[in-house]
Amino acid sequence: MLRLIDRPGHQALLRVPPSTRAVVSWNTAAPSGGIALVAHHGDATVTEPLLYVRWSPRERRSLDGAGGSARIEVDVLRSEVALSAVGVASTVELDAVAVAVPPPPDARVAARERTHTLDVPQLSQYLSAYPEERGWCSAAALAMLLRYHDVAADVPAVARGVYDSAYRGTGNWAFNAAYAGARGLRGVVAYLRGIDHVAAFIEAGLPVAISIGWQAGQLPGAPLEHSDGHLLVVRGVEPGHVVVNDPAHPAVATRYPRAALDLVFRTHGGVAYLVAPRERTPELVALANNAEPGALRRPAPR
Q1: Ramachandran class of 217: left when φ > 0, alpha when ψ lies in -120 to 50, beta otherwise
Q2: What is the domain partition of the chain in residue ranges?
Q3: In the predicted model, is pLDDT for residue 116 greater than 70?
Q4: How far apart are the C-alpha atoms of 30 and 28, rounded to whole Å?
Q5: Is the pLDDT assigned to residue 297 strictly greater than 50?
Q6: How open is the CA angle 14-78-134, to the nearest 5 degrees?
Q7: Domain 137-295 classification at class level
Q8: How many percent of the chain have pLDDT more than 70?
Q9: What pLDDT, on a 0 to 100 scale, did the predictor assign at position 291?
Q10: How far apart are CA 96 and CA 278, in angstroms?
Q11: Is domain 2-100 given the CATH code 2.60.290 in the classification?
Q12: Which end of the chain is more exposed for a tag (fewer CB within 10 A), N or C?
């Protein structure tokens, strides 16, 4: 479930279905700022503000605030008592703030056998000028989404813009969404219900970056034997395969068996980067919450 408030100013309260984890993402043009979260629980208890992030032109840093029964782990708010809402307090005005919680285990979406294939620019995470950098999958996936939406982006620049100096990597989900927001788009982190759910976005002309993890033998054709966490872009769905741009694959553009990719996506948590023009924000939220795309305005496939 995704909740989003446009132009909340400095504070917002986003109510959520009962959940023990949530991801808060935000968009702002402010070059410096900081955010704290307040966990509201179903038993009516409320935590003190938990320090979440701060950023400036020199550094972005997750703060891992903790208090009472709740704690923040890089980009995930976890709670021992089910959350009922998340309060957000920012030192700067926000263009948007969103909170996502996982769907129920039995949640289902409409089956989609096939979609068209989107023309998403292909970018590798491995660059000869940066031979020591092997973990830029998130930055490369985000750069591909930005370029698809006609925003100039290259992998090193995105990597610098999303690097979390506390986490020491570019895979902080919320920082990636914030980077897209700072470039004039709407960027949010969401939990999706599998490849059928991703296909709804493809049908609406919106490629999606998904976070996956797998063990040896679970993802045939993958360029790595296993991974604890990897980002790639889905740009088309077929009955037996999913068409992707995998920044770790030598060819970038490739296909993976649909059942295998669906499994490693869902078991890894179902987290996705959703990026769209700002005027399509209501549609983005509706799709994340499983509205049928046929009832929504959508552009011609690119």
Answers
A1: left
A2: 2-100, 137-295
A3: yes
A4: 5
A5: no
A6: 105
A7: alpha beta
A8: 96
A9: 65
A10: 10
A11: yes
A12: C
